[in-house]
Amino acid sequence: MAEEVLSQSEIDSLLSALSTGEMDAEELKIEEKEKKVKVYDFKRALRFSKDQIRSLSRIHENFARLLTTYFSAQLRTYVNITVASVDQLPYEEFIRSIPTMTILNIFKVPPLEGRILMETNPQIAYAMMDRVLGGRGSGVNKVQNLTEIETTIMTQIFENSLGNYQEAWGSIVEIEPILEEMEVNPQFLQMVSPNETVVVVSLNTSIGEASGMINICIPHVVLEPIIPKLSVHYWMQNQQQKESDPEEYKALSNTLKLAEVDVSAILGEADMSIEEFLRLNEGDVIRLDQLIDEPMSLRVDEEEKFQIQPGKIKNKLAVQVLSEYQGGSDYDE
């Protein structure tokens, strides 16, 4: 610990106070020996470190991106989901903070113990269902009057989205989320004891014109077996192992080699008006901007990659690569 250096004037003032009796040296010694007490609330025990909370935040930021992409494709409308906060609090406090009537999805995540709760604001849930049924995505709030058909549709929407949660956790642990039930009243739901510490991840959600929150409640009992993996040290070590694993690099390279891409040889191009195009008849000749003695272009997924020349191999049309394209490209940076 760095020592505080007093100025000469401060030393003189201190000595003067001691000599005049304004300050008692014995009282100073007693105050120094007294233990400083910090208030601790056992009902609000903090069982996760800041490092572990940051790791959970990263995992759910990835989940939010995956969920945004998934719902955008499924609902065919504007969707934006972002992490608003990640907090740890007693389970009872979380239950009191959510509406009396809302959409509660409870799912297991084997091989981990316990269950996870996903609470979705009714405005968001109904906007999703409205889009699935072909509507504009209007959000309404009539949770207490859910019909069997509406319950089935909502269950399927959230059950199908759990694959994204599995993918988000893939770098830490392999889980298999299974939707157990859907409730609308949090008072009838008792997953853990009221004082159990839970991590609550709040997601800001916008679907079309509707907006609200999705809250994911993860009890401590679920995360307890994998708490050591939620540290930065584990992430760094795991990343280094991946980068230094030659077998994994070889497998990734072999997989990339099997990837299919669209390859096209461009004989030439021509500009014409729509009127000229509509007047084309059989036997007409279109003059291209490609000279005979100039190399042709070979494009890979619409990107110009090679200069080529046409030819034949065993009476089949073919092209020969002359050189790699040296023009400007985003991939050259």
UniProtKB/TrEMBL annotation:
Predominant place of localization: other
Lineage: Bacteria, Bacillati, Bacillota, Bacilli, Bacillales
Keyword Cell membrane carried by entry: yes
Residues of the Flagellar motor switch protein FliN-like C-terminal domain: 256-323
InterPro entries: CheC-like_sf, Flag_FliM, FliN-like_C, SpoA-like_sf
Pfam family, one: FliMN_C
Presence of the UniProt keyword Membrane in the record: yes
Annotated protein name in UniProt: Flagellar motor switch protein FliM
Entry's family note: Belongs to the FliM family.
Organism from which the protein derives: Halobacillus campisalis
Coiled coil: none
Keywords: Bacterial flagellum, Cell membrane, Cell projection, Chemotaxis, Cilium, Flagellar rotation, Flagellum, Membrane
Signal sequence, renumbered to the chain: none
Subcellular localization(s) per the UniProt record: Bacterial flagellum basal body; Cell membrane
